[in-house]
Write a structure and sequence with these properties.
Largest sheet: 4 strands, antiparallel
Number of helices: 2
Strand content: 15-25%
Radius of gyration: 44 Å
Order of helices and strands: EEEEEHHEEEEE
Strand order of the largest sheet: 6-5-3-8
Helix content: 55-70%
Shape: rod-shaped
Distance between the termini: 15 Å
Structural class: alpha+beta
Length: 257
């Protein structure tokens, strides 16, 4: 007793992940041409996965575009403050300082005049005290504005820039995370779309197609409509009919013959 078979068999395997149902398969022993359909798998689950992956891909792309805009705003905010808001605030304080310095000079001139008039007997001591108070108040105003300028230059500017640069780093990190999510979701979508194409198995070459159960192993599952198959399972075989062999089983006691 023996079996005639090919010594070279091209295995046609399932490339779709998970468990899938066969809805059509070519008949055993059929001669096919390259490009002919051999097996069709149920695509309902795959279509649902593609719809779900498309939705997630759109969501993550929307988030990535929003974070990209936030990142650009964070970059612009640094320049806008350093060369805009900060300069404006500094100029306003410097202008206020100049005005108050002029006021101080005026107050001092008036005080000197009051003292001269008081010495001549035209002004009272109360008038001199009033002008002295005006000078003191003007000096305090000048000192206050000078302090505000110093705080702006030495502390407020540094604090604001540190906050803006921190916002920039945070925006960059969020955008990078969103881009990675976009890449991951697009990869899953591409995988699902590619597997969708694998649900229709076509012949890569011409030749005879046989079912695995007809090959040399007899315990291979039957590939038929309604059968469940999984990834990397051998669906069909295409034997090379130019390299045939006879496989026989000989009892140990008859090997010498």
């Amino acid at each position: 007793q023996g079996l005639v078979e090919s010594s070279e068999n091209t295995e046609i395997k399932c490339k779709v992940r998970g468990s899938n149902t066969v809805i059509w398969v070519v008949e055993n022993g059929t001669n096919v041409e390259a490009g002919d359909e051999l097996v069709r798998l149920d695509t309902l689950l795959m279509e649902e996965q593609i719809a779900e992956r498309t939705k997630y891909a759109l969501w993550t792309r929307s988030g990535a575009e929003q974070s990209r805009a936030n990142l650009e705003r964070a970059k612009l905010a640094i320049g806008a403050y350093e060369h805009g808001d900060y300069i404006v605030a500094l100029k306003l304080l410097q202008k206020e300082f100049a005005v108050k310095e002029a006021g101080l000079l005026t107050a001092r001139d008036l005080l000197a005049h009051e003292k001269t008039m008081a010495e001549a007997g035209y002004k009272s001591e109360l008038d001199v005290e009033e002008k002295t108070f005006d000078v003191t108040r003007a000096e305090l105003d000048v000192d206050l504005t000078a302090t505000q300028i110093e705080v702006l230059e030495q502390f407020t500017r540094k604090e604001q820039l540190a906050e803006l640069k921190g916002n920039l780093k945070a925006s960059a990190a969020r955008h990078k995370a969103n881009e990675e999510r976009v890449f991951a979701d697009n990869s899953r979508l591409e995988t699902a779309e590619k597997e969708m194409q694998y649900c229709v198995v076509k012949a890569e070459k011409s030749g005879m197609v046989i079912h695995p159960s007809s090959a040399r192993w007899k315990d291979a599952p039957e590939i038929e409509e309604g059968a469940t198959v999984h990834k990397d399972q051998v669906l069909l075989l295409m034997p090379d009919l130019t390299q045939m062999q006879v496989k026989v089983g000989i009892h140990e006691s008859m090997v010498d013959r």
